[in-house]
Design brief:
The protein contains seven helices and six strands, in the order βαααβααββαβαβ. A four-stranded antiparallel beta sheet has the order 4-3-5-6. Strands 1-2 form a two-stranded antiparallel sheet. Strand 3 and strand 4 form a beta hairpin. 35% of the residues lie in helices and 12% in strands. Helix 1 runs antiparallel to helix 7, helix 4 packs across helix 5 and helix 4 crosses helix 7. By secondary structure, it is of the alpha+beta class.
């Protein structure tokens, strides 16, 4: 089982996993674009020791990095990544509502086989975020309807499964221990970021 909570990764590793140069990473904090999270990081800052980050933090920084690379302001990208996904989950309905996905824990993905791959739509006009699962094809209404205005709007779409895979590999975290059946884990091909009309976003990279 993956440990998402323990602060155990240095800033240099987290920045590299996010595709952000370490000096730029530190500059984002100095300029107030990125914020310290949790007591562990704040204590580190006050005592002058190395900052350590959790896997949830690392995933949030990686998402912020993707948004920054397609032109989103660093502060807005940080807010969207951390409070739209990494440190906020989804609601659990009791009793379950037919057609609604199960609860998603902060910083975690839905089960790809049971629920679908995990996507995040960011809406530049309002800064709103929508995280949703999709099985065989993207549910277009989820990708282009701004949750703030409830109207179609331009969006940046992130394929979170791809981002998570890249971060886990960069940090040396093993999601799938060796299978006893000898069957390899299968991950879908796809782009990390694309415009809502399916075209690659400017600056987007393949995973």
């Amino acid at each position: 089982m993956i440990d998402y909570d323990t602060a155990r990764f240095k800033s240099s590793l987290v920045a590299a996993a996010a595709g952000i140069e370490i000096n730029t990473f530190r500059a984002y904090f100095k300029r107030g674009h990125f914020l310290m999270l949790g007591e562990t990081e704040q204590l580190a800052a006050s005592h002058g020791v190395a900052h350590m980050w959790s896997l949830r933090d690392a995933l949030g920084f990686a998402i912020a990095g993707e948004l920054i690379r397609v032109g989103v302001d660093a502060g807005k990208a940080f807010k969207a990544a951390m409070w739209g996904f990494a440190h906020v989950g989804s609601m659990q309905f009791d009793p379950p509502i037919p057609g609604m996905p199960p609860a998603r824990q902060p910083g975690e993905l839905w089960d790809a086989q049971q629920v679908g791959f995990t996507f995040m739509a960011f809406f530049p006009a309002t800064g709103a975020v929508r995280v949703f699962p999709a099985s065989n094809q993207i549910q277009i209404a989820e990708a282009i309807e701004d949750p703030e205005t409830h109207k179609p709007s331009a969006s940046v779409l992130l394929f979170l499964n791809d981002i998570e895979t890249r971060v886990l590999e960069a940090l040396g975290v093993d999601r799938n221990p060796p299978s006893t059946t000898g069957e390899p884990a299968i991950l879908p091909p796809g782009r990390t970021a694309c415009q809502h009309d399916g075209r690659p976003a400017k600056g987007a990279r393949r995973g």
